[in-house]
Amino acid sequence: GGWSEPLRLSAAAFGLSAALALGSPQALASEARELSSQEEAELRAGKLVVRPEIRNVRGAQLRGGMAWQLIRATPDAVYRTLIDERTYVQYLPSAEHTQLISATPPQTVFIQHRLGFMRGSYYVRTLHDASARALRFRMDRSRPSSIRDAWGELRVSPYGKDQCIVSLAIMADLGEGLLIGLVRDNVHTWMLRVPALLKRYVESQVPAG
């Protein structure tokens, strides 16, 4: 159906067929290569680990990649934030407005971003998988959008005591519009910053101990 095909394409574009199903940082990378010792050290130090990708598939240029971030909060607390569309403006780069359009799964959410005098918006369908603490998303192509297509997954995995790893797998066809032409490289970088912005927001909500 409409969900399985883009997620398969996402995994194939990365060469990571297990990326959307497995939990630990090492397992998430298992179909490509293990996280390097440097990546693991950066992860434990609280840095964002990214693997950007640009692929040409069926005549379209897809941009995205994978990103991992250690968050000092419980997996359940992070997952609750992840599935609350009211918090999207806190961790989606340059997001200024979100609105829940339909609460029936898959939910439909309108998202608008602003960069200086430029605005871009789209509608995204989301599926919540509480057992895996995963949020799967795909742009709703039946509605007006500033980009052509996008899909992927955010997943929360336990990592030590009261900590977790948030992993992002995303691919997008940004299209050829004027807005995208002006900010194409920034959009690619911004997509992979989502776990870092999620970390900043979630950790700011934890009471000082």
Radius of gyration, rounded? 16 Å
Share in β-strands: 35-45%
The count of β-strands is 8
Q: What letter string, H or E per element, gives the SSE order? A: HHHEEHHEEEEEEHH
Strand line-up in the sheet with most strands: 1-2-8-7-6-5-4-3
Return the structural class.
Answer: alpha+beta
Which term fits the overall shape?
A: globular
Q: Compute the number of helices.
A: 7
Report on the architecture of this protein.
The longest helix has 14 residues. The N terminus is likely disordered. The protein starts with a helix and ends with a helix. The protein is globular, with a radius of gyration of 16 Å. Helix content is 29%, strand content 36%.
Key features?
29% helix; 8-stranded antiparallel β-sheet; 8 strands; 209 residues; alpha+beta; 36% strand; disordered N terminus
Structure, briefly:
This protein has 209 residues and is an alpha+beta fold. 29% of the residues lie in helices and 36% in strands. The protein contains seven helices and eight strands.
SSE blueprint:
Blueprint: H1 4-14, H2 25-28, H3 37-44, E1 49-57, E2 60-71, H4 75-82, H5 88-91, E3 95-102, E4 107-115, E5 118-129, E6 134-139, E7 149-158, E8 164-173, H6 178-191, H7 194-205
Antiparallel strand pairs: 1-2, 2-8, 3-4, 4-5, 5-6, 6-7, 7-8
